[in-house]
Amino acid sequence: MPAKLSPKTRKPPRPKWRRRAEARPEEILDAALAEFTARGFEAARMEDIAKAAGLSKAAVYLYFPSKMALLEALIQAKVGPIAQRAQMLAQAGRDDPLAALRTLALAAAHTMADARVIAVPRLVIGVSGRFPEIADYYRTQVVEKARLALEALIEAGKAKGAIRDEIDVKAATRAFIGPLLFEALWTHVLRGETALAQPQNLIEQQFNILLRGLERRS
Amino acid sequence: MPAKLSPKTRKPPRPKWRRRAEARPEEILDAALAEFTARGFEAARMEDIAKAAGLSKAAVYLYFPSKMALLEALIQAKVGPIAQRAQMLAQAGRDDPLAALRTLALAAAHTMADARVIAVPRLVIGVSGRFPEIADYYRTQVVEKARLALEALIEAGKAKGAIRDEIDVKAATRAFIGPLLFEALWTHVLRGETALAQPQNLIEQQFNILLRGLERRS
Amino acid sequence: MPAKLSPKTRKPPRPKWRRRAEARPEEILDAALAEFTARGFEAARMEDIAKAAGLSKAAVYLYFPSKMALLEALIQAKVGPIAQRAQMLAQAGRDDPLAALRTLALAAAHTMADARVIAVPRLVIGVSGRFPEIADYYRTQVVEKARLALEALIEAGKAKGAIRDEIDVKAATRAFIGPLLFEALWTHVLRGETALAQPQNLIEQQFNILLRGLERRS
Amino acid sequence: MPAKLSPKTRKPPRPKWRRRAEARPEEILDAALAEFTARGFEAARMEDIAKAAGLSKAAVYLYFPSKMALLEALIQAKVGPIAQRAQMLAQAGRDDPLAALRTLALAAAHTMADARVIAVPRLVIGVSGRFPEIADYYRTQVVEKARLALEALIEAGKAKGAIRDEIDVKAATRAFIGPLLFEALWTHVLRGETALAQPQNLIEQQFNILLRGLERRS
DNA sequence: TATGAATGAGTCTTCATTCAT
DNA sequence: AATGAATGAAGACTCATTCAT
Fewer CB within 10 Å: N-end or C-end of chain D? Predict the structure, then answer.
């Protein structure tokens, strides 16, 4: 499933032997994400990542053959869950699409209150100039999938008559994603006063406006 | 005025020596932006920047004392114009705020078709982990200002009765900015199929939805 | 007996545990020779040697305490046989020394067609700068012995009247060894077109010239 | 002329400017040869080479892009002179080929008394396993050329009637080179008692034997 | 005996920055 | 104002060697 990027190196064999060798890749990826986020991919030092994972520099190379591989594995590891969640949520709400959209938006806003959620996207934005394949990978594996799930939901809304016929589905999708993205960047990257913490307020208002723009005048 | 960041070194004094020495800082900043965008701040090499600006590595240091200073100067240089334009546009449309919003959105979409426009924001996102002051600076000097201009416009719309009273101004502003941001990142960073080139289509639909959500039912 | 070099560690004691544990040191030395030859002593990796010997890296250390010890053991192991063979051949031909010299040369040429035969000398040449003791060891244990055997043979030839009296024995010996050495390096190191494969031709001619230079004018 | 290996990096421009930048490549190559010879290519440290050349580690990289490039440049630099000298000597003696051969041999023996002369061949032998192209390069550019020059000389001897007709030229050539090679390795690599210092003795005897094997019985 | 896991000590290479001219 | 030359400091990656099992 993880399409393009180089495959993980983790070896599958004996899961019981020494210390907690099995947990290592996970720990390393966590440490790497933290360092990459804090300093950027280039400025992050393998030694710091290793230390944060409780290992020596050289040991990291037992699990990942290079810094770049670490980046790739990192993104891959975070990709699956996100895309899946988006799809599940979208499908869950085919009965009342408008309500589902609001629920989805609020859930997303809530999720995004955790800085780690945008760590990966932020990282992708940071390295996109140097490693366009990573941008492509992230677009196709994550954003595109989330977008399609959303589109399906809006399409369902149109079929049900809850959303006006002349609404362009793509446009609506982007209008939906955009504010969430802005809020996340505003909060975690630009360190502006967050509205994510009280989704009942700002975010909800935002989506009310949007939904009102979508819905059929009854 | 430029809040925290280091001062602009010095204007290279008398231009008596060689050709357009006066233009040098400009050229260097352009080259730096290009390199920073293409490779990221850390990975960009001073030598490449110098070469792109038609100078020797050492000569760059006659104008900017360090790589960091280059980054700061870069951001500062791009800050003024953007904020100003936003303010002008906002004020220009106090008569028919709704129309002004649509015009503004389309103009912004058009502008953003040029990749260089998001070069700086992308850069800011990339270095925000390492240099939070830069994120703060950009937020306060650019985004905040644009946001306030927009808020003023929407406030005006409410005052004129074009926008419904119960609309939360902050929420509306974010709903306005978000889709533009998404579109820019989607196009230039994630290299998705752009909608920016034909603003009459997708972007316009997007804002139609938003504006319909804002406007008072006639 | 093996002069300076470190002692042979220890014979791996009782072979009761696994299969042909007794053969292990042999296998390891073979693998080591192959790797050392292919990459040079410094560039050869213990891991590759271990893999080639069918063991884990750590297991190699059960038999040899260090990479250097491997090198020493390697050279020692190959030394005995070669010196012995030279001596035997030399003694075998005391009756007709000239014929014996030709036979010896052809046999040597034939032997040297196998690249492994010069693997050790080549290795010695490669490390001689770094480990002069190894060069000394090889000189005294191998080359010197072979040289003395040859000298004895030529001396015998003089005594029998087959070789002219005024011939300098040392000079003749070197004239004998040199071409073989050249041919081996030319073939296996410099990868030139070999003459070793058809010893009836080039090599034989070579020794004909030499022997004609040695023999008493009848 | 330097056929295959990557081209030198030395820049040709202004030969007077700063310190003695122009002499640098030469100095570095000398230092590199010394280190490579003393420790072998792999074990030699760039830092030591730099220090020996009176530079910082990084400065070496201004002249040669990598350690490997240093090795290549080194071999190339030493190749031309050697091949040329061989050719000149050979051509100089077409009148009395037998005398020329003896002169050549003694000159070669004399030259080889300097350890630096076999430094490069020894290095080539050392790295030939890892970098076969280098072995090939050295074979074609140096050994082959020297060999051909010698063959021409012997051919001339046959034409003049000084050397017997049935002598195989290739065989004679190798018989000629071999002892020199042995003597050089014996002396400088194996550190045996040298005969090179008193060429009037051993070496001369060696060649007397050889020449007597070559010459026509008068 | 055998090994997967781990690491300390190194080495090449890069690069922002300085200096002499 | 401008640059070729030079370097100190750093970082990715490697590998012989050790250890716990």
Answer: C
Is residue B199 predicted with pLDDT exceeding 80?
Answer: no
Whether CATH 1.10.10.60 fits C22-65: yes
Amino acid at D78: K
D139–C192 C-beta distance less than 8 A:
yes
pLDDT at residue A40 tops 90 = yes
In the block, tokens 């041919």 appear at C183
Cα gap A7→C62, rounded to integer Å: 35
- In single-letter form, the type of residue at position C7 comes to P
Q: How high is the pLDDT of residue D201?
A: 76
D68-212 folds as Tetracycline Repressor; domain 2 (1.10.357)
Tokens found for residue D85: 């000298």
By C-alpha distance, which of C209, C78, C157, C88 is closest to D179?
C209
Q: Cα distance from A197 to chain B (closest Cα, Å)?
A: 14
Q: Give the gap in angstroms from C-alpha D113 to the nearest C-alpha of chain C.
A: 16
Residue-wise pLDDT tens digits, D120-170: 999 999 999 999 999 999 999 999 999 998 999 999 999 999 999 999 999
Cα separation, A45 vs A43, in Å, equals 6
Q: What is the DSSP string of chain A?
A: ---SSPPP----S-SSSSTTGGGHHHHHHHHHHHHHHHH-TTT--HHHHHHHTTS-HHHHHHH-SSHHHHHHHHHHHHHHHHHHHHHHHHHHTSSSHHHHHHHHHHHHHHHHTSHHHHHHHHHHHHHTTT-HHHHHHHIIIIIHHHHHHHHHHHHHHHHHTSB-TT--HHHHHHHHHHHHHHHHIIIIIS-PPPSSS-TTTHHHHHHHHHHHHHBPP-
CA atom of D21 to C1′ atom of E20, Å: 13
Q: Specify whether the CB–CB gap between B141 and A192 falls below 8 A.
A: no
Compute the distance between CA of residue B12 and CA of residue B20 in angstroms, rounded to an integer: 11
Kindly report, as residue ranges, where domains of CATH 1.10.357.10 are found in chain A: 68-212
Q: 3-class DSSP state for residue D65?
A: coil
The string over B121-135, giving b where at least 16 C-beta atoms fall within 10 Å of a residue's C-beta and e elsewhere, is bbbbbbbbbbbeebb
Cβ C134 vs Cβ C6: under 8 Å: no
Query: For A59 and E6, how far is CA from C1' in angstroms?
Result: 6
* Residue A179 CA from chain centroid, whole number: 15
Each residue's pLDDT tens digit, C192-211: 998 887 756 788 899 999 99
pTM above 0.70, yes or no: yes
Cβ proximity of C207 and D199 under 8 Å = no
Write out which nucleotides of chain E lie closer than 7 A to a protein Cβ. Answer: 1-21
- Across B210-214, C154-158, D46-50, the highest mean pLDDT is recorded for D46-50
Q: B193: buried, middle or exposed (CB in 10 Å: 19+, 13-18, 0-12)?
A: exposed
Domain with CATH 1.10.10.60 in chain B: 22-65
**Both tokens of residue C102?**
């030709």
Burial call D22-39: b when 16+ CB within 10 Å, e when fewer = bebbeebbbbbbbbbbeb
- Residue C213, chain D, CB below 8 Å: the answer is yes
